Amino acid sequence: MSLFDPIKPIKTPRVGLYSVGHEHYWNQFDGLLDRLLGYNRFIAQQIGTHGDVCNAGMIDSESGARAAAEKFNAANVDIIFCHAATYAMSASHISIARHCQRPVVVLNLQPTAAMNYDQTTTGEWLAHCVGCCVPEISNAFNRSGIDFHIVSGLLGLTETPEISLADECTSDHPEAIAAWEEIHAWVKASAAVRTLREGRMGFLGHTYPGMLDMYSDFTMMGAGTGMHIEVMEMCDLDRLAQSVTVAETREKLDQVHEMFVISEDSPADPLARKPKPEQLDIACRVAVAQEKLVRDFDLDALTYYYRGREGNAYEELQESLILGNSLLTAQGIPCSGEGDMKTAVAMKICDILEAGGSYTEIVSSDFNHGTIILGHDGPFHIAISDQKPILRGMGLYHGKWGTGVSVEATVQKGPVTLLNLTQTGEGRLRFIGNEGIAIDAPILKIGNTMTHVRFDRGPSQMMNDWFALAPTHHGALAVGHQSELFRKVATLMGIEWSSVSHGEAIEDSSVAFREILSLEKTELHES
């Protein structure tokens, strides 16, 4: 089994789909209903590449809407797509949203970029008159308190139906590509919400004493995310560690040698040394036990910390958790240190959306490079490392008890997004996103993960803006600019979303970025 093979699969989202139309049209215009149902099947096929589709077909009456709502509820759909196929009265389908209590995305997808104006008949026009009912839908949904969103653009067919008088091959048109990117993003976001809602969070030990920003109410966390919180004790892990065989430990050590670079002594820090054989042996034995813990308790994520009497057996387990939790994080079971449940949720969302999600905090700022350095002493999401991560032996974990091995690595260069889940003074959850660019710059050789990230403004202003939103001091570092996708997850979860970045391409829009480019040119000239 590869170290990157997921231990548990991501839940497939369940998507409800229906098209709307006006039943009086069917007898007036031959072929119109079949034509619109063809569009409906195309949409179902496209959405089906990312989720399980429950398709109710054409809804053109209140009774049909009630039947569709029962069908969607029976299928336990996560999201509903309302396809505006032609004009339809809002009263004929609004009961679907009322009864299902699920977010609705209205698809305003025109089949053609432009009608054939010289030859178009009324029936032909009605097949392209998709936007005419969307204002009515929006008004009715808004006044009814229904959560709805709209995607407008082109349908994106690859073939023009024989009945059509216009060119409907729009799959390569930018308006079709953008629309389908948006639709697929909603489906992917639904996968994250379902996986969380049906997931189990392990809480091992306790929260790091004194870190008030990380204290959370288990009931509030469950209500906000849907996850079950399974409280575990260190004796649960100790029992499994005692069962690990020499052969299992040796196999894990072979995997570690394949996956990591084993460090020599740090040239700078006397605490960072080449890992001792006994340190690696203990870390690998505990890593096997951690995998067994995840399987025994059927966990989807884990947060942990332990501090007890100095020199006790559980302290040895605590010292050895970073390696195993980095491996678990790479296998889709994100592990956050210091008992930070909120960040474990943020890491899980990043991983579900295939964006990584490495445990991180602000390490320092580099005002010469215009960066904020993000990282931690673990766990690290190995799958998004820019090269083989390094294992270092630690003579002492900073600010913590004990010694052991730690992961030193850097996230892949290019676009990144910092995702933070915090709790407000009112006791509600809030997501905060921030997009930047990970750059190549020197990092410390002390056994910590570190990545230099440039944001769309200087470090001082960025920190002021970030801190003003009262974030948890940890976060999840994801690859790619993912704010829009993360925002959709927050929307579907009913959690407030805030963004620090402007949402514009840093390369194009930021004066600060142009100044940084000038600095780079100067550095290059001097070198």
TrEMBL record:
InterPro entries: Fuc/Ara_isomerase_C, Fucose_isomerase_N/cen_sf, Lara_isomerase. Keywords: Arabinose catabolism, Carbohydrate metabolism, Isomerase, Manganese, Metal-binding. GO terms for biological process: L-arabinose catabolic process to D-xylulose 5-phosphate. This is L-arabinose isomerase protein. PANTHER family: L-ARABINOSE ISOMERASE. GO terms for molecular function: L-arabinose isomerase activity; metal ion binding. GO terms for cellular component: cytosol. It comes from the Bacteria. It comes from Rhodopirellula sallentina SM41.
